[in-house]
Description:
By secondary structure, this protein is α/β, with parallel strands linked by helices. It is built from twelve helices and twelve strands. Helix 1 (6-13) crosses helix 2 (17-25), helix 4 (75-88) crosses helix 12 (290-305) and helix 9 packs parallel to helix 10 (244-256). The longest helix is centred in the middle third of the chain and has 16 residues, at 186-201. Residues 51-59 have low confidence and may be disordered.
Amino acid sequence: MKRITIKDVAREAGVSITTVSHALSGQGVLKQETRDRVRAIAKKMQYIPDWSGKNLKAADTGILGFFTRSVAGLYGLLMDSMYQECQENGYEMEIFIVESGERVLQRMMGKRVDGAIILHSDLKEEQEAFLHDMEFPVVYLDREIKDQYASSVLFDSYGSGRMAAEYLYSLGHRRMLIVRGVDWTYDGDRRMKGFGDFMREQGCPVEDDYVVKGLFSQEIAYWETKKFLQRSLPIPDGVFAANDDSAIGCIRALQEEGYSVPGDVSVVGCDDIELGKWFVPALTTIHTHITEQGKLAVRELVRLVKGEKEGDIHRIAGNLIERSSCNRKQD
Length: 331
């Protein structure tokens, strides 16, 4: 079968070769309508750019890219662990903070990197498919993908949610409050699902009125917990927050309203941030091993770049850290 070339795509689209190159790489000044039409034609024709050519990307740059939309919180530890592992494997790392999935593709193709680690909730399925078609080595930290060129290195967030629920349940707590993370992120969704599934299986499902917004934010969790407490519903026995920041915000709100943690309410967070061990009360949490995730992601990407393996899915189990924000329910 004849290999489709960039000239074939240009001819079919009725544009120049330069326009095709700019449309696929995200470079140049093009109308979005033209860019979308050329990409659709290239995909339909199953055109695979020559990554070793000069149209899109030079080979063997010795640089790996990390693409994200935020570097807040624990991401500093993640990036540091990735950079150290890059150095041990003879690579440099560039960090790209971009807002949209479209910009991820533009930066990935416009910059010369040998592979990418992606933690970006805005990257859509069609953009994942585009990277696959381009045979571009990718490791995802926020979705389950496994193919010849892509791997996932994930926290077992579902298991972490179940672990938190099982622990609170073992202390005698039955009426639970959930402080949600960001629903459209992998970790936020899976942590809540794991917690909810366990409680449902015990015959104590979490009621809709006992789910509040946290968005992984201490401030938002604080105010949303305040609003919950003003509704005069029965106070929960236990709380699971999607991350430690939102757990701390929830505790502050409870304390300001006159409730004791853990005397009246037990609270469990997730991630095991440094502040959690010094907060009063010290926070019981799920340690998620973010440094291990960063190192494993780089090792996996290096092997994909070198063609030493096909993609795989790796899940890193968390472990419970018991501190003083939880107590056995008093009769």
